Structures are given as C-alpha cells and as structure tokens.
From TrEMBL:
Residues 244-364 form the DNA polymerase III beta sliding clamp C-terminal domain. GO terms for cellular component: cytoplasm; DNA polymerase III complex. GO terms for biological process: DNA strand elongation involved in DNA replication. This is Beta sliding clamp. It is found in: Cytoplasm. Residues 1-119 form the DNA polymerase III beta sliding clamp N-terminal domain. Forms a ring-shaped head-to-tail homodimer around DNA. Coiled coil: none annotated. The keyword DNA-binding applies. Residues 128-240 form the DNA polymerase III beta sliding clamp central domain. Confers DNA tethering and processivity to DNA polymerases and other proteins. Acts as a clamp, forming a ring around DNA (a reaction catalyzed by the clamp-loading complex) which diffuses in an ATP-independent manner freely and bidirectionally along dsDNA. Initially characterized for its ability to contact the catalytic subunit of DNA polymerase III (Pol III), a complex, multichain enzyme responsible for most of the replicative synthesis in bacteria; Pol III exhibits 3'-5' exonuclease proofreading activity.
Length: 367
C-alpha cells in the first residue's frame, strides 16, 4: 500500500477516529487505527467494540492495501510533522515508512485481517436532523446520565422519535434532563444510546444549521452519518424508566429569576457548600426575594436575589452541583423554578420556550 495526503487532513482524521480507540483494552489490535484505501479515498477506522468511527479523506492512492497502526504513536507522529504532503508506504511484512519533507519514520504495523469489522447497518428508515440541533440536544441532556454502572440503562440517553417530535432524556436518580426538538419523519422509534457515544458525537458535530446528520437504527445498533464520518454504536438493552410519570404536572410556587444572577449566586454559595458532605445550599423564597444560604464548619454565606413569585413561600435544600449543571447549559436569559413541597422535585424551565425541562430532587433539611 502507498498513498500521499496532506498532513492537516491526516491529522484531523486521526483525531476524529481516536475518539473510539480504547487505551484500556487487553486486545493490542484495538489500540490501533485501521487505514485502508477505498477507491481514491483513504478510510480510517477506530473502535473499542462498543463504538466505532469511520472517517474518509481525500488522498492520492498510489497502490491499494490496508494496515493497522498504533493510534497513539501515529497521532503523535503526524501531529508533529510540518504542514506538507505526507507519504505512507507499507511493504509485504507490514513495515510502514512515513515520509514528510526532511523526516522519515519506520514503524511495525499489524495485519488488518485481525481488526474487527464494524456492524453492518441497513440504511433504511432514515432520520435526518440538523447538526446544530443534535449537538445542542446532546449538550443539554448527556451530562445528566449516571456514571455508576450498577444500573447500566441510566448511563445512556433515551432517544424517542414520535409523530415528528424527537425527545432526548437522561436521568441518574437525582435529576432528569429532557430536551425536545422537531424532526421530519413518518417513522416512530425509541432507543437508549450510551452517554459516552453521544459525548464523542458532540465533539465531532459542527454547529452549521444547514448540515444534516442521518440516523439509522437496528435492534442493537445505531449509525450516525455526516459528511465523511460514520459513527456506529451499540444500543443499551433494557427498559428505560417511564420519565413522564416522574415530572410533576402542577406547582404551588413558581419563581421567575434571571439565569445568570442565579448561576452566579449559587456558584458563590457553593464555595462553602462543597466544604460540607453533600454540597447543600438552601433556598428561602418569600415575597419578591430569594435568599440562598450555605453553612459549613468554616463559615456561612448569604445571597439575596430579586425574583417574581407566583404562589406560596417555600424553604427547600439542594445539592448545588445538580443546580449548577443545569444553569450552565441553559440558553435562556430567564427561567422558571416550579416547586410543589420542600420534599418534592423542583422543575427548571426556560421562560421563552417549552423545549427543555430539568427536574432536580431536593435534599431534606434538618429540622
């Protein structure tokens, strides 16, 4: 095999497929990137058997072939080369020579026959979604997946497509994040996609409104396809929690507050809250004022915020981290905080759209 391509394109391609390469695997072949000629293009593939990424780039193919090269080593070498054409040549014994201007590297590769094939996915029942919308939906949900593997289904995000509406839902037992969007399709579907997969897709997606992502499902896998990239992931098995039952339908107290002001106040209060055991902050809502307090052995903090209150006064406690996570991903200037009782979930919603709902459980206050 022999090909010539630009250092920039090759480096960018390695960077994309490396996102699927495992560093912890006991199988040496999975620590490598498969490089294969495909007509007049070059295909790079990385996989950890859970998720696989294929990327195609333009190249001058001198002779066809394929090879597996150490991902870490290849990435480091190509990144350090000058911005010029890179020539890669592989002989019959899997020796690889990389040349660029005044540099020459010789590496030992592995035969591609040992590299696992990515699952084949029938490209029918296509769902098309703008890249910027999918990127935003992932940003506003995947952070709320569980990190604990004891309930594997909660480490994923439910993607639910029904009658032209796409919902993405994540929950970890302490909070729930729901983002809604519109999609043109006649097909309904639902599947749970690993949070790790979606986080990698988020890094690859662009924010262009006109660029589309094509999504295809099988019973066990999902394929995301865009421009020159294909990402194939296994789906999580099991029944996702009926999230609609968890979200309260009514409230007794509704607070309207500026997002940035609340974020800044909680960040300051959490400087002391994190000195305690559970990042506890307390909201005291009365009339047109919300007081945020935090007590720790080393001191106390009080924050006062102007609000608009509809309904009853309330005192309620929260883990500050769960509140901050939501406030950081909200794009609206003002939000509603809906409360029922001081032991019931709080619902956070933007005031200017109905496409996002965040639920967070309170912490019981002593006394």
């Amino acid at each position: 095999m022999k090909f010539i391509c630009s250092q920039k394109n090759l480096s960018a391609s390695i960077n994309i497929v490396q996102k699927a390469v495992s560093t912890k695997t006991t199988l040496p072949i999975l620590k490598g990137i498969l490089i294969e000629t495909c007509g007049q293009k070059l295909k790079l593939v990385g996989t950890d058997l859970e998720v696989g990424i294929e990327h195609y780039i333009e190249a001058n193919i001198v002779s066809e072939g394929s090879i597996v090269i150490s991902s870490r080593l290849l990435g480091d070498i190509i990144r350090k080369l000058p911005d010029a054409d890179v020539e890669v040549e592989v002989d019959e014994t899997n020796n690889i020579t990389i040349r660029c201007e005044n540099s020459e590297f010789t590496l030992i590769g592995q035969p591609s026959i040992e590299f696992p094939e990515l699952p084949a996915i029938e490209e029918e029942n296509i769902y098309e979604i703008p890249q910027d919308l999918l990127k935003n939906m992932i940003r506003q949900t995947a952070f709320a997946t569980a990190l604990d593997e004891t309930r594997p289904i909660l480490t994923g995000v439910l993607m639910e497509i029904q009658e032209g509406i796409i919902n993405m839902v994540a929950l970890d037992g302490y909070r729930l994040s729901l983002r809604q969007g519109n999609i043109k399709t006649d097909f309904n579907n639902k599947a749970v996609i690993p949070g790790k997969t979606l986080n990698e897709i988020h890094r690859i997606l662009s924010e262009e409104e006109n660029s589309k992502v094509e999504i295809f499902f099988t019973d066990k896998h999902v394929l995301f396809q865009m421009a020159n990239v294909r990402i194939i992931s296994r789906l999580l098995e099991g029944e996702f929690i009926n999230y609609k039952q968890i979200i309260p339908k009514e409230f007794k107290s509704r607070v309207k507050v500026k997002t940035r002001d609340l974020l800044d106040s909680i960040e300051r209060a959490s400087l002391l809250a994190r000195e305690g055991k559970n990042n506890l902050i307390k909201f005291s809502v009365k009339d047109e004022m919300m007081t945020i307090t935090s007590n720790a052995e080393i001191g106390r903090v009080f924050e006062n915020l102007r609000i608009e209150l509809e309904g009853e006064d309330i005192d309620i406690g929260f883990n500050s981290k769960y509140f901050l996570d939501a406030l950081k991903i909200l794009d609206s200037d003002e939000i509603y905080l809906d409360f029922t009782t001081n032991v019931s979930p709080c619902i956070i919603k933007p005031t200017d759209t109905n496409n996002y709902t965040y639920l967070v459980l309170p912490v019981r206050l002593a006394g």
